[in-house]
Specification:
alpha+beta; five-stranded antiparallel beta sheet; 4 helices; 20% strand; elongated
Length: 147
Amino acid sequence: MKKSICFMLVLIGLITSCKKETDKERAIAIVESQYERKDQQLDFDQATLDSLYTISPKAYADSILKGNELDSILAVLESQIEHFNQQESDSVGLISAELTKQRYRLLDLAKTKPRFIGWKLSGVKVEGLKSEVLSFNFDKAITRIVK
């Protein structure tokens, strides 16, 4: 008798723990509670939940890589500029100045490290006459929709 009671309790515990709501399901529930009206139905079949950053980690990594490439190009240009005549030297100087501006922009971007700011539920379709696709931003804990 005690074994069957223990077995039932373990089984109930397993079933309950497997029923845990996912982040996407929580986001969908919030949208449904705040935005669904009788005259419009929302379709979440193609919706995706993605993380939001101040700058995407890929863009950050790309800017670091591009900055390193620009440093190499600028070093080559500066080492070669003394071998050019005045007109060529002036042209290379203009190119070098433009590349230096780009490098400073990338250095500023590199100071802004990616920081997680929340979640985005995108690809929510509005069923009806017009085919509209909506996106919703959420706070970090997916407890509310933010603007």
